[in-house]
Amino acid sequence: MKVPRSVGTSHMIQRDCIITGSVLAAVVLVVGVSALLHAASINQDPAYTDQNAYMDCARKMSQSHYRYVTPRNRMPIYPFLLSLMYRQGMPTSAFFNLCKAFNIFLSCALLVGLFFLLKRSLDRMSALSLVTVFAFTLFAFKAGYVQCEMLFFSLFLASFLLLCTCLLRSSIVLGLSSGIVLGVTHLTKASTLPLLGLFVVFGLGRGLWSYLREKKKMPFLCVALVILSFFFVTGRYFWTSKRIYGRAFYNVNTTLYVWCDSWSECMEGPHAHGDATSWPQLPADQMPSPRKYFKRHGIEVLWLRPLFGLRQMLYYWTMGSFGTTGFAVCYLVVTAVLIFRRARESLRRAAKRPFLLLFAMGFFAGYLYAYMWYAPIACGPRFFLSLYMPLLVGLVWIQKKLSLPRVRILGREIELFGALQVFFLLSAGMYWGLNGIQKLTSLGWYRVISM
Questions:
Q1: Does the structure show a pLDDT above 80 at 386?
Q2: Which helix (H) or strand (E) holds 412?
């Protein structure tokens, strides 16, 4: 006879779900209320940063019945969402307030979505801990601004996790969903082509390895589905770029500006000659290009420029980190200590997933190098912040896989991994109570937060 689940066990599961839901709701409520107060009392200038630019794109989309083509330095998804709230003749101040409220609501919804995404990838306690850290060190500060960062950071994390999952197990549904999410991420901010290329390299490597050992073809199919679904989502955008600008992958930042030495050179060169509406009308010898850049600077620029960019990035990240610096360092130190203490198990587990490990290392190293290269043109904390959530999730995943022992705390025996997640959750709450509210309500932090 099958023994039913005990009443005590059911009550414990129900109690844990209620506690988790209550904490998540409280975190989301605090973020929403704090962001609303900051947006109403501090962020009152739509011309600051690029808020007005997103609103202008949204306004033109709505007024042209969505025939307006966004300039190739700003992607269409976020302005499209804002355009759904615009009404003909709406004053700028009213539209600005509506956009701020929408971004706050969107950020709160993204936090809930991230919890369920991380719960599938990790476990409930880890997901709650990470979402709390993200909420009090990132979302609460950025949600009150009309910027696409919160949407992009969340989609970027989802794309990274889905592609990592594709390298662990392959399926048709997983391949299609990964490509679709990656495509939507690209239409939010044009930064995912390197991620797609990296996945194709290691996905094909894993596919070849699986085929030679077990004659499995599904990894190849999964890679093909990711590529096809990505271009299904982004195909029209690339076709429009080819028709207007002559290049399917045209983006002023990655096509032209990246081969300049300063922002003023970008403005006086391509921008002043119409790079927003067509291919810039510049003589060939004045057009920024890799060949011209390396001819002028030499091969040593490959390491000199990134080093200069890293110094700028570190300055902006530490100045405008909102606590992300401290938490990133803390997660890194804890994970490094655990790996060192369990070195043999770490090597054994890494040997079982070589393609996932190389993909993750290539992801962080590649994007960090790209950001370091671009930093001399335009820099801000958002470069590091785009890697912040994937970094913390990756470190927690490593901690979880190390099979940490149980420890005795206050007379009770609990898992060390669970204790660490509770520690990070409580630390995020303490940080918010001691520092977060002060920074969020300070006029001096206004320019830092909105970078």
A1: yes
A2: strand 412-415
